[in-house]
Amino acid sequence: xxxxxxxxxxxxxxxxxxxxxxxxxxxxxxxxxxxxxxxxxxxxxxxxxxxxxxxxxxxxxxxxxxxxxxxxxxxxxxxxxxxxxxxxxxxxxxxxxxxxxxxxxxxxxxxxxxxxxxxxxxxxxxxxxxxxxxxxxxxxxxxxxxxxxxxxxxxxxxxxxxxxx
Amino acid sequence: xxxxxxxxxxxxxxxxxxxxxxxxxxxxxxxxxxxxxxxxxxxxxxxxxxxxxxxxxxxxxxxxxxxxxxxxxxxxxxxxxxxxxxxxxxxxxxxxxxxxxxxxxxxxxxxxxxxxxxxxxxxxxxxxxxxxxxxxxxxxxxxxxxxx
Amino acid sequence: xxxxxxxxxxxxxxxxxxxxxxxxxxxxxxxxxxxxxxxxxxxxxxxxxxxxxxxxxxxxxxxxxxxxxxxxxxxxxxxxxxxxxxxxxxxxxxxxxxxxxxxxxxxxxxxxxxxxxxxxxxxxxxxxxxxxxxxxxxxxxxxxxxxxxxxxxxxxxxxxxxxxxxxxxxxxxxxxxxxxxxxxxxxxxxxxxxxxxxxxxxxxxxxxxxxxxxx
Lengths: 165, 148, 215
What we know:
The complex is a heterotrimer of chains A (165), B (148) and C (215). Chain A contains five helices and three strands. Chain A is an alpha+beta fold. Chain A has three domains: 4-53, no CATH class; 63-110; 117-165, no CATH class. Chain B is α+β, with helices and mostly antiparallel strands. Classes of the chains: A alpha+beta (165), B alpha+beta (148), C mainly alpha (215). Chains in contact: A-B, A-C, B-C. The interface between A and C is large, with 68 and 74 residues.
């Protein structure tokens, strides 16, 4: 058994038909007022939709950091998954843990005078200056393929006659 | 216990390699699409799949290459081909940059004309590719790699 | 010499936009590449859909910082689930559902949004009467509002709704979800969704009547 609110919502959205519609129309006192209310709800809906589609919402900025954060989270979680030892026994895990600690301690004492961060797994470009206004340079990184490309656009096409040496 | 000692020994050896004399290898490549691609040059093996994805070429040939020993005191010229030169100033990265990283100031020249100047941080064996001009036979690329 | 200086790591999305090969591909082709593990293709999808996802989440949580975090979480979830995407709906629709799911989960954790019982009439002054006898608005002299004022009023009104009511309004009125889809996302019954929609609309009618009647 639907409540009045459920039936009213279904009616406003045009989801009642046949006997359900007839029963609802009999239940409502003053269909004229209800019709007027339905028009209002539709006006409200139109207003909200125009708000959603319009430019009134905040803009996601800066997108650089956003994309970087998404990719970092993905690569970090995937690295974590790959390293997850599915079938190791707790004994081996303990041994591996102890071995890691021993290596880390030895490495720290022997090799690393100060705390150091891990080597980046791909090259990073920190700045680019184009020599010519017609040249546009952009960095592309593909962390999964461990490739960094400095992508230069606006260079002259080299014809057949140009010998690459 | 034997394994611990071996691990420590391995770590020590690996660690000393980090502090060895690094070299920068640079090459000019021609990327093309071939029905039967030639084998990937061994220097590019690790990056090949990523390069193919980004550039949409399936064959990468080395047209010329050169290797310089890193010298933090002065800038050097790297001339992997007659057409493309690089001016390189390198300095070792700090601990905060990562062990074994180099910070490079690079300027790329094409037929003596400067194209771009860039600052890049390269870890050992993490190549930097520069997509240069398009030639009638394919796409010209320049690659730089720090070799431990 | 023109100078361009970027932060440590560049926009993959911006740069990917320069890749004509990527830009001409439709979402489905990119999804296929994602399913082969190509993160570059996924990055292109992030670039295409991030603003829309962020806007929808913002409408639900009303805080830019939170909306940003939730959108990031949503994209990570989408990447993890992309192997299961079969193309039965548009990628954008599929992503939208993931995003709204993540946002609802977040609201549930943060504000205790209930999947079941909730006092719909709380804070509603005229709903019961309005259901049967439409409340008569006493309007001041009509005054046309600027676009900025309209936006502000809508924002304010949405902010005054409870999370439960805001979710159904955002999903139904702003994004065209079906009742059942909302019920699935919220983990509540169809009747609850319809009831919440009834009360949420009533509240908004009371708050925004002068706005939509004077447009």
